[in-house]
Write a structure and sequence with these properties.
Length: 321
């Protein structure tokens, strides 16, 4: 491409401080160093996690920073030691590294790389590259990375273990959602909850994660998929993806959990909270069958030891993973 080994000037959305709008700026993106890859971002989506760091009550915020972690792009150049990627490859940046060599990556029981044990929080602990420096500069100042990806930039630099290769014919504007929303919602249904054929499911929230959960329940053979959202305009898409019942709490004269319990003669088999609200979590637990209480919260992360994980909750609190 003629830019290998050179600084690239491009546009990026920078958060200069918390609780303020992002600013479109010209930035300089340095060439990749050892085991790094520079990517041209073709498509990026907005995840609510990107907004967390801007919230005035968020602890541990760092600025200035280029946010973004749900994207797809094309490899522009690679640094020394990179063997799995080459210029022109279509890729998805990963906020959770995958070295592919440690015992955790090689185990079928987890997908959390051993590199994560060094992280207390993937948001803050991946704000610089492994050598402790940034590849972004704006107005003479270094700019922090975000979650090891920083996709709100036309070009970004990531570690070669924070990257997944795509098929050459992949539609980047669609597959960018694999970087977070789809894998989170669909994966929670298939891998965590293991929804069974013929079961009944309730899904709270119809953003990217919630709609992906709908698809997961449909693929799993659920017989009834009840979706809940305060924006009824989302119901058309939800039904197209497999939802069987759509409820807007604003249109009801009783608590949503009571309505669902009546609809299902006692409660649902599986419930998915894709909003991130404590009140929703409590209400969701109350609508599950008393005999096999299983719920999955997939919108917020719980920081346990060193990794972000969605959790499973049983009536007796025996299973917390």
């Amino acid at each position: 491409m003629g830019t290998k080994g050179k600084i690239i000037k491009c546009k990026a959305a920078i958060a200069w401080e918390g609780n303020k709008p992002l600013s479109i700026e010209e930035v300089e993106v340095a060439p990749p160093k050892d085991h790094e890859v520079r990517i041209q971002i073709i498509a990026t989506a907005l995840c609510h996690s990107d907004a967390h760091i801007l919230h005035p009550q968020f602890e541990g915020g760092f600025f200035p920073v280029i946010l973004g972690h749900e994207a797809a792009g094309i490899v522009e150049s690679v640094g020394p030691g990179v063997t799995n990627f080459k210029p022109g490859d279509k890729v998805i940046p990963l906020y959770a590294p995958q070295c592919g060599k440690c015992k955790f990556c090689l185990s079928p029981c987890t997908n959390f790389c051993g590199k994560l044990k060094h992280f207390k929080n993937p948001m803050g602990d991946q704000k610089l590259m492994e050598d402790g420096t940034s590849r972004f500069t704006c107005k003479g100042k270094p700019i922090y990375h975000f979650m090891g990806t920083s996709t709100f930039s036309q070009y970004t630099v990531v570690s070669d273990v924070n990257l997944a290769k795509l098929d050459d014919d992949a539609n980047l504007e669609r597959v960018c959602l694999l970087g977070c929303a789809f894998s989170t919602g669909y994966g929670a249904v298939i891998n965590n909850a293991k929804v069974t054929p013929g079961s009944t499911c309730a899904i709270f929230g119809l953003g990217g994660v919630g709609l992906s959960a709908v698809m997961g329940c449909k693929a799993s053979g659920a017989s009834r998929i009840i979706v809940i959202d305060i924006n009824s305009e989302k119901f058309t898409k939800a039904k197209a993806l497999g939802a069987t019942d759509c409820l807007n709490p604003k249109d009801l004269d009783k608590p949503i959990q009571e309505v669902i319990i009546e609809m299902t003669n006692g409660g649902v088999d599986f419930a998915f909270e894709c909003v991130g609200g404590a009140k929703i979590m409590v209400g969701k637990v109350s609508l599950l069958f008393q005999s096999w209480l299983l719920t999955t919260r997939i919108r917020n992360w719980i920081w346990m030891h060193w990794c972000p994980i969605p959790y499973l909750l049983t009536k007796s609190m025996r299973h917390l993973t």
